[in-house]
Amino acid sequence: MAQLICPGELHEDRFPVFCEDSIAARHISKIVLRNTSKPSSRPIYDHGRRSVYEFDNEGRLSHLLLVFPIRNKGLDTIEHHWIYRAGELVSELESTGAYVKRTRYQDEPDGSTTRSVQIKHHSDEWQSVGRDVVRMEEQDSRTVFSIATGNNPPYEECVTTYIEGGLPETREVWNGPRLQTKESWNYEDSTITYSRFVASEVIPQMLITYNYKGETLDKGRFCRRADCKDWSLFYYPDGLPKAWLFIDPVTQDLDIWEFTYEIDH
I need a labelling partner for 116 at 20 to 30 A (CA). Which of 11, 39, 83, 242 fits? Predict the structure, then answer.
């Protein structure tokens, strides 16, 4: 069975991404991540942080709920919804507190896509805040995803290059002439060994290394700037991830992600 967690991919640069084929093959409808911490020589502490993923029958992420602590010792949430029609993404909804953002996509005859964005607060009326033209072009061993307003030059471009076999090698996001972010991936025999995310051309922001036991993700290292932690994955007998542990090699403090599942039989 293929990996459930997609190596080299993170949602919002923090949360794991699950492989659609594996989710669909296992008929998984929901995954809940419980995030706790264990300072060295102290009990496990539950902050209330949760990540709830819901999937459609094709294994696509349709709902993501993020629960996190706030200053007054309460909890707050961020919600994302994705709606598909005939295999294509047609709408996104993001809720943060009392604010809601709705993004709609409409395919055009020339092959481009119109993206319309609306926002509202509480029960107020929807307000339009943007209407863009989205295009994707395939150029030899790379794809260019661009966003423009009307017939103006693109104000944002995402350029992805590929190696043999269609595996991504680099991904750059440009805001006009300025490089905003860059990601890169390294492989051995088509298996990813590390991914790197940088916020400029010279300062590394994030590095993740991957080691395998056979074909199964086993352990590695996660670095954000100079803060590095060693990670290990543990599995249920059926091969589904059970816990993802991150340990600070200096302090021995632990971050723990525990996985539970709902499966449609």
Answer: 11
What is this structure's pTM?
Answer: 0.91
Q: 78-88: string of b/e by CB count within 10 Å (b at 16+)?
A: eebbbeeeeee
Instruction: List Cβ neighbours of 183 (8 Å cut-off, separation of 6 or more).
Output: 170, 171, 172, 195, 196, 197, 198
pLDDT tens-place string over residues 209-241? 999 998 899 999 999 888 999 999 999 999 999
| pLDDT tens per residue, range 190-201 | 899 989 988 765
Domain residue extents for the chain: 5-263
5 three-class SS: strand
Residue 170, beta-bridge partner list: 161, 184
List of residues 6+ apart from 64 with CB closer than 8 A: 11, 15, 51, 52, 53, 54, 79, 80
